[in-house]
User: Which sequence fits this backbone?
């Protein structure tokens, strides 16, 4: 009698490429691992790259604990252009002149977003209102009332400056829309802005330097992938072990 193949279980850290949805990554891994029970802990927009925590097999049970962890990002904001999606993938809706801002002025503006606050999810998002994802309403040109959500921005640092763009490093809680922060920053500065690039570098203690690209994973055997899996008990916060 043939034995059923062993089902893998654990956490796999993946470096998501751009132009892939988080669901695309899951679909490719399902094909590679020949498993259906695979999910992720924290969506990245298609434009964004970086750390995506993949849950394999029974590890999907710990999703809620990993999704609640704080995130760290690096990215680029472009001033002077407002898009309908609040990032570079959207259509430019408005162009405004960029004033001769200094690094000090940008740093001061970033500091104004630190701390506890409420953020309204963007229309182009997967948040559901009455069972309908907001992005579907947005594509019809509809504006839906959204409930603001609590977030916390622990740090937002300027790392590069060359107007009309600047680079940043951000640390924030789950559910924070970085592109909305960029949009709101542009509104405060009076010139508009959108998120030009984004890379998730860390989720709590997990860093993108520990992650594998999809190409690297595809080149591994199942046994080699199994060796890279983190046990669910070792991945969740100590308080829930």
Assistant:
């Amino acid at each position: 009698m043939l034995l059923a193949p062993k089902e893998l279980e654990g956490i796999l850290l993946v470096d998501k490429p751009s132009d892939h949805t988080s669901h695309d990554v899951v679909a490719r891994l399902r094909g590679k691992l020949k498993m259906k029970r695979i999910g992720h802990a924290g969506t990245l927009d298609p434009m964004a790259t970086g750390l995506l925590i993949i849950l394999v097999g029974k590890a999907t049970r710990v999703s809620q604990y990993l999704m609640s962890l704080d995130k760290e990002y690096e990215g680029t904001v472009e001033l002077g252009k407002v898009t309908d999606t609040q990032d570079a993938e959207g259509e430019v809706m408005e162009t405004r002149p960029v004033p001769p801002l200094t690094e000090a002025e940008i740093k001061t503006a970033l500091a104004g977003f630190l701390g506890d606050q409420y953020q309204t999810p963007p229309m182009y998002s997967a948040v559901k209102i009455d069972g309908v994802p907001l992005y579907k309403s947005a594509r019809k040109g509809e504006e839906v009332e959204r409930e603001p959500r609590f977030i916390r921005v622990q740090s937002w640092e300027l790392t590069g400056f060359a107007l009309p763009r600047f680079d940043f490093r951000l640390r924030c809680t789950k559910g924070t829309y970085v592109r909305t922060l960029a949009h709101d920053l542009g509104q405060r500065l009076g010139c508009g802005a959108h998120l030009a690039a984004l890379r998730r570098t860390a989720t709590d203690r997990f860093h993108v330097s520990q992650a594998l690209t999809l190409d690297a994973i595809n080149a591994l055997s199942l046994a080699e992938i199994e060796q890279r899996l983190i046990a669910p008990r070792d991945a969740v916060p100590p308080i829930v072990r």
